[in-house]
Specification:
Mean pLDDT: 91
Shape: globular
Number of helices: 16
Largest sheet: 5 strands, parallel
Number of strands: 33
Structural class: alpha/beta
Strand order of the largest sheet: 5-2-1-9-22
Strand content: 15-25%
């Protein structure tokens, strides 16, 4: 439970305390002072918006590092050489921010103490060694996060790099050798692995979870793993690095399964932890190290706000370390402060982030929004999952390729989360679904979305529309799905693909009747179903779910108790991953 948030304190009681200052300034002698701790996404967004709302405010930005505004999401692409000039990563400098927005930006300035009662912070400048105390009317904390450091022996090796800052990227760009190991297969880890592989490193990607990109469902992550292998990256999932032995010429990394790898470069990308020690020391409420904020960014301390990777909402247990929510949150906090100065109530709250994210892997794109299966199961939510594999544009137009979409739908038809993987059109589809979620649309409402269509760009029934149609069929009871996680090897399966497709791989207890022949061969289905009477209902399966939907309706109309495999064998193969070679029977 969140502690009660304190009320607004008038600025008139606050003075300025700076080492060497001759006297305290009073309210009548100066404008509002806002001190912002931390730049980059959240902090700089707040500073820029606040200046636009209040030209007279004194806005001071304190940044511990040397760069106050840089493109941290672009760092892996600089490491890989796609961004050639490191200067492109620097969005603004203290000088440019002073000229454009009249901001007082102080780099290499670390806040070492926060005194909420005195409304002041203590600042240490690493360039000059100077320490001083700075008062504020409002304090905005944008603490960010640090690279997590798991308990691995030898992690202090000089060959181990993080990838969080410009200096990290510069060091990795200059790293030499032929063998690289990336510890952690999240977004940054995958981008780092691809960047190093593109530079000619023999690259190993190590992930403790059972599959890469752990927020993805396994049937989606398998597609990513396949693409990583196509790039020459060797994936080690379900294992951890146990020790790093440092030698003169290289490091030796031992994995928990006994694998021993040689490395010239090691990238640590095993997640992040909140950088909030100074906030906790000030007595500001935190949970698991994250600063707790309300829906206007207020902390438990009067006139102190927080945003970004190091924060968590009162009613939200999952931090979201993404640039978009941090940017938007910084803007809204600035509005809250500006409104308070004008005696207005804060109008727009900071919405709970959906975690919409996207990553490129070789020729594929993977994206997601909302909750995944793990989060839904942990919350006890009632939901069903649909899988579709519609082409990104008209099938008759050259270059048509599937967009694999997975969507979790609540018992009331609400969209709880979605994921997509494909070569083209993934960004567009996940953004549409994320927008529908924010607007409170139900899954069935996706059917009615009027999306742009021309043969090079989409279909008359867009993949998003089609996903909504499948969800509607389930919600209305017209369709009962069996997920790939529910399909066992002994379950009876009516496979309605062609004989050639069937021979290339099918479930062991299967009957193959192409969907075009099904109406004339229902007696065969009945005789086969009688043999499997104890295993009713049986499951109808095709390649992607289109033909099996036709077959499902035929046999259901004939009185059979039946379900349909969600997404067909495309989804099943992805769910099985490497096990598909042993589970599926070939003839």
């Amino acid at each position: 439970m969140c502690v009660p948030l304190l009320s607004y304190t008038p600025r008139g009681i606050i003075g300025l305390v700076v080492t060497g200052a001759s006297a305290l300034e009073t309210e009548s002698e100066r404008n509002m002072r806002v001190v912002i701790v931390g730049g980059v996404a959240g902090g700089m967004s707040a500073a820029a918006r606040l200046r636009r709302r209040d030209e007279g405010a004194e806005i001071i930005v304190l940044e511990r590092g040397s760069y106050v505004s840089f493109a941290n999401c672009g760092l892996p692409y600089y490491v890989g050489g796609e961004i050639e000039d490191s200067a492109k990563l620097l969005l603004h400098t203290p000088q440019s921010l002073k000229a454009a927005l009249n901001l007082d930006v102080r780099i290499n300035s670390e806040v070492t103490e926060i005194d909420p009662d005195a409304h002041s912070v203590t600042v240490a400048n690493s360039d000059t060694g100077e320490a001083y105390t700075l008062s504020y009317d409002y304090l905005i904390l944008s603490p960010g996060a640090l690279a997590a450091r798991p308990p691995i022996d030898g992690l202090d090796s000089p060959r181990v790099h993080a990838l969080r800052t410009v200096d990290d990227a510069l060091a990795l760009r200059e790293a030499t050798g032929t063998r690289a190991i990336v510890l952690g297969a999240g977004f940054i880890g995958i981008e780092a692995a691809e960047a190093l592989a593109a530079r000619g490193f023999e690259t190993h990607l190590v992930e403790l979870a059972e599959h890469v990109l752990p927020p993805l469902e396994v049937e989606m992550a398998t597609l990513v793993t396949q693409e990583l292998r196509n790039l020459g990256i060797r994936v080690h999932a379900g294992v951890a690095a146990q020790a790093i032995a440092h030698a003169d010429n290289n490091d030796v990394v031992t994995l928990s399964d006994g694998t021993v790898l040689q490395a010239d470069v090691i990238v640590l990308s095993a997640g992040v932890r909140p950088d909030t020690a100074v906030v906790e020391a000030a007595g500001i409420q935190t949970r698991r190290g994250y600063v707790v904020i309300d829906d206007h960014g207020r902390t438990s301390a009067d006139d102190i706000y927080a945003i970004g990777d190091g924060t968590i909402g009162c009613d939200q247990d999952r931090p979201v370390a993404l640039a978009g929510p941090a940017n938007r949150g910084g803007r809204l906090i600035a509005d809250v402060i500006a409104d308070a100065e004008h005696g207005e109530a804060a109008a727009r709250p900071i919405p709970s982030p959906q975690g919409t994210a996207i990553v490129r892997i070789g020729s594929l794109t993977a994206a997601m929004t909302g909750a995944n299966r793990q989060a839904l199961d942990a919350s006890g939510a009632q939901y069903f999952t649909v899988h579709t594999h519609a082409n990104q544009h008209a099938g008759y137009f050259p270059g048509a390729q599937p967009v694999h979409i997975l969507m979790h739908v609540g018992a009331g038809g609400e969209i709880l989360g979605a994921q997509a993987v494909g070569a083209e059109g993934v960004d567009r589809r996940i953004d549409v679904i994320a927008t529908a979620m924010r607007a409170g649309l139900k899954a069935a409402d996706l059917i009615d979305l009027d999306l742009a269509y021309a043969p090079p760009y989409g279909q008359a029934k867009d993949p998003v529309n089609q996903t909504g149609m499948v969800a509607h069929n389930v919600a209305t009871g017209e369709l009962v799905l069996t997920g790939p996680n529910e399909l066992s090897e002994d379950m009876p399966v009516l496979d309605v693909r062609t004989p050639g497709e069937y021979a290339a791989g099918h479930m062991p207890n299967s009957l193959n009747i192409p969907h075009t022949q099904l109406r004339d061969r229902l007696d065969e289905v009945r005789a086969w179903a009688d043999k499997n009477a104890d295993e009713q209902p049986f499951v109808v399966m095709c390649a992607a779910g289109v033909r099996s939907w036709i077959g499902y309706r035929i046999v259901r109309a004939a009185g059979f108790d039946v379900t349909m495999l969600s997404g067909g064998i495309q989804t099943l193969r992805a769910w099985l991953g490497d096990r598909a070679a042993t589970v599926l029977v070939k003839e």
